[in-house]
Amino acid sequence: MRPLGEVLERRSEVVNVAADGTYREIGIRSHGKGIFHKEPVAGADLGDKRVFWLQPDCLVFNIVFAWEGAVAVTSVREREMIASHRFPMFRPTQQPLADVQFLRRFFQTELGLRLLGEASPGGAGRNRTLNQRMLAELPLPIPPLGEQRRIAAILSSVDDAIEATQAVIDQLQVVKKAMMTELLMRGLPGRHVRFKKTEFGEVPVDWSTVTLGTLLVRGPDNGLYKPQSDYGSGTPIVRIDAFANGDRVNGDGLRRVRASNEEIRRFCLHGGDILINRVNSLSHLGKVGIVGEPPEPTVFESNMMRLTVDSTRVLPSFAFLILASPMTKAFFLQRAKQAVAQASINQQDVRAVFVPLPTLPEQAAISSGVENVDLRTAAECHCLELLSGLRSMLLSALLSGEIRVTPDEASP
What we know:
Blueprint: E1 2-3, H1 4-7, E2 8-11, E3 22-23, E4 26-28, E5 35-37, E6 41-42, H2 43-46, E7 51-53, E8 59-61, E9 71-73, E10 82-84, E11 89-92, H3 100-106, H4 110-118, H5 132-136, E12 139-140, H6 145-186, E13 195-198, E14 201-204, E15 208-211, E16 216-222, E17 231-238, E18 247-249, E19 255-257, H7 261-267, E20 274-277, E21 279-280, E22 288-291, E23 299-300, E24 304-309, H8 316-324, H9 326-335, E25 337-338, E26 343-344, H10 347-351, E27 354-357, H11 360-400
Parallel strand pairs: 17-23, 18-22
Antiparallel strand pairs: 1-12, 2-11, 3-6, 4-5, 7-10, 8-9, 8-11, 13-14, 15-27, 16-24, 17-19, 20-22, 20-24, 21-26, 25-26
């Protein structure tokens, strides 16, 4: 255990600001999310502000949010950038005892955050500032330098895997959006050569174009309203937070509510039912989910509408894709009734949704193609969840010494 001031030294090189120069400052995000670069500013706009040149490979703190994990390490990307006195920089002493990447990781642990909190006196809420004298006195667990570097490298490899997995998920979402736009309006690739114009764009000439209301056997109907005092036990209820737009709705993690037999009969969901959020902020209005086969009688809440389609004309999975598409989202936004903090759509709006209607086999092929992307996305999300859990476990175990890296593995 060594105090921070014994293993790191303060680095500060004052910038002589030129009025006609251009400078770029940094900021540091909380929760270990790293450095971000601000927009360039003219020296004249900095005025008398005291700023310092950034140097690479320094541990840097945001003194206002250090207690929230606003700690980072500078790199060559920050060379010739500047920071104010709110971002003190430290680098290892001449005979290094500590690795800055290791220390950055340490300050992401529960112990590291607690120490930063103790060194950040202040009022309630976010009004706290890191005291640099107290920072220098913080006791840090310092394993051998080679082990520190090995620990940092292990955690970096997990972070790289998390970043790569998130990039795959982001790209799959882009692919899905493009697929839906193309398949729902143009059909399967290579199948159609002649198209007709509609108010929403061109569709194959042999497709029907109808409104959703002509394809329904039930609904749209609004859900069950219950006061908060009725929640806690009883029948599972699907609330708006149970799914994201385009999700399958199952029975996992649902809240329960007291409901009479008549209410259960009236609002009970069945496999293939589609739920549409009818009241929300504009960005979330019209969120759509399709119901799997509920494991027990399940109802839905009042800020949603339920509808059931005629499966001899349109597959529930295909109708679900239409309702979850950007085309329908734009349609709902055009018809939304806005109040002070939220907007709404009604049953007539849902019935009026435009549906380009291919044959049932082509509907099945289109639905299957999009579902395959969903399955791949779900697999990547599961992988991301496992990697995040692994990272948390390793962060705790490696930085506390519960898991030690052997000297051979720890060689620089």
